[in-house]
Amino acid sequence: MNILFLTLLDFESIEERGIYTDLLREFVKDNHKVFIVSPTEKRKKQPTRLIDNGNSKILKLQIGNIQKTNILVKGVSTLLLESKFLTGVREYYDVKFDLVLYSTPPITLQRVVEYIKKKNNAKAYLLLKDIFPQNAVDLGMMKKKGIQSILYRYFRAKEKKLYQSSDYIGCMSQANVEYVVKHNNGLLPSVVEICPNSIEPMRVLIDDQKIDDVKKKYNIPNNKTIFIYGGNLGKPQGVDFLLKCIELNKANQQVHFVIVGAGTEFSKIKTYFKQEQPPNAQLFQQLPKEDYDALASLCDVGLIFLDKRFTIPNFPSRILSYMQASIPVLAATDRHSDIRKVVEDGGFGFWCEHGDINGFNHYVECLSDDQLRKEMGMKSRAYLENHYTAKHSYEIIMSHFKKER
Predict the structure, then answer these.
(1) Which one of 16, 148, 328, 372 is most buried, counting C-beta atoms within 10 A?
(2) CA atoms within 13 A on the CB side of 402
């Protein structure tokens, strides 16, 4: 089959590791041809170009700035995405597609999807990773009433059209499935299914010397329980609570926090670290991929944060890197996410409500037990291999085409 994949993720080879590239490699392994639109933001000053890697071709489409920018610039750039993607596909891909695969964000690619479906009689599969614009409403960034509701109504209409254009919608979890069906009248439940965030699990093998080198390089202490947060540092994470957790553990000599990430709230976190200089916490904006993987594997517990105001059931992909590293998870999220059910039923982590500092600190103390962490870490890796592999997600998608044949 010829598969067209539309994404906002910026990559130049499917050999790179991530939830989308790992999935695309499964298609190539099974002798499908993959055509990708992977944009590059204007700030990088790179012209539109096509990368041909044989069974995978990547259109590096120049677009406006969307990530790590203010909401006005992001909004304008998002509105222009549809026309840019449509023009790029028309100009660079004279191909008859069998399947168009696309992810949210963004929701503004409905016209591109419709164009491909109509021109090629192709099927459309949506990988739903973000329920927008409701998430923006939850965080107070959009309004459903008054003059400010114009933007919400526009994006909500685009969201509905995108769902209607999709032959299949793959959600991250059961809570996602139930939410989408409940809040979108007319959407057939049979169209919506679980197709979770997934990766091709790798064995992160590092010897004692590598561990010592990484610890020395980044000044990571010995004989402490190391809690790591790696990923986006923006509004969805509710970073004020993250900072409160660090602040109220400043005197705890048994633990150490490592924060690695970037996003719209990074400057706030950086200011806190500069002013308060917490003795048992470190902040890194970016690390080389190899170093981050090594660092994650020598840390003891992976942290997940989601703002408690969310009414939509988010399921962060960051959890996969912790599971790959065979470490337990401590999640502080809203009550609507079913990440609690996953980590507790899987026996590889603990959950508290975002904002519950007493609950958070209780589990910090529990996870200082070496034997408990070891047992949970083994379960974490096993759960990943049994539920969240890229091959598993590939088979879910392809099952629809096998039926049709």
Answers:
(1) 328
(2) 6
